[in-house]
Amino acid sequence: MPRVKVMSVIGTRPEAIKMAPLIEKLKQEPNIDSVLTVTAQHRELLDQVLDLFSLKVDHDLNLMSAEQSLTDLTIKVLVQLKEIIIQEEPDLVLVHGDTTTTFAAALASFYQKCAVAHIEAGLRSYNKYEPYPEEINRRLTGTLADLHFAPTVENYNNLLEEGVSADKVFITGNTVIDAVLTMVQLDYHFDKAILNDIALQEEKIILVTAHRRENLGQALKNICCALKRIAESNPAVKVIWPVHPNPKVKEIVYKEVNNIDNIMLLEALNYQDFINLMARSYLVVSDSGGLQEEAPALNKAVLVLRDRTERQAGLKAGTLKLVGTATENIIAAVEELLHSEQKYQQMISVENPYGDGQASKRIVDYLQYYFSLSSIKPNQFS
What pTM was computed for the model? Predict the structure, then answer.
């Protein structure tokens, strides 16, 4: 039986989380040689996930450096990945999402005339600076890709409207749901010891993250102000904020909301701690893209600290609500969900539009069909 070589390229913690279930499925296929290359665009956070999912790395470019620009990172990926592609000669390169690693890896593959498959394809905000640089990264990657694995029908339609042939797009659901569903445990013991006590308390937990480039500066100060006022007016609520390691984030957050009794600032959590904390939370307030998909899988409402989102399926379903970064808007949205059971139940009772935990299997089954290793074309996610 013929064999094919598939090389996955990842650079950040979110990419690793979302690709881990797929890489594991690829390893299980006897007619697929799976190669994993990491750029280490994020080093420490990436390593946590590699260890958690026991991912064996074949090539580590180790590109992270302090304060490096997007230009510098793109150049490094292009130069170093070229040699790996020439050495490995993969039949297909898999890239995920919208990071600088994603776009640069797709471009490096194109330069070597190697086919590219884009996981989590078709997400669009249609504003090139929100999110920045992710919106352009995914659009350019989409232009370079030969196969597009779209999480939802909305993403599928976006690609068709941009002129992508329907036979190059396959709807899979999102692989992050595959990962999330394997992480949650009812009797989970947190590595971060202080969380074990909090998990047993009756307080409503608001889980917060904020780190986007466009929210640095005054927008982040507005978010801090809102959370401070929410905490002060709701003493029975516990705000837990694992703070992103970016110094520009930490400086503002620790200055603005430190030493408030019911706001807990933590260093970034490992992924399993974070997911199990989210599972025990009442509400998620975040500017993250991935959390807009992960939280609904755990029946959690998400207030999105952005003016627009590429996760349109969540908006349409009602699992997400855009609140922006204006202090008063954040306060009003949080207070509504804290005190209106009807509004809260409306958001958490919606079926998750992002997947059923089978996205990785669909992708691998489709690759088998694409490379004529199987005559059976799998069904798309609906």
Answer: 0.87
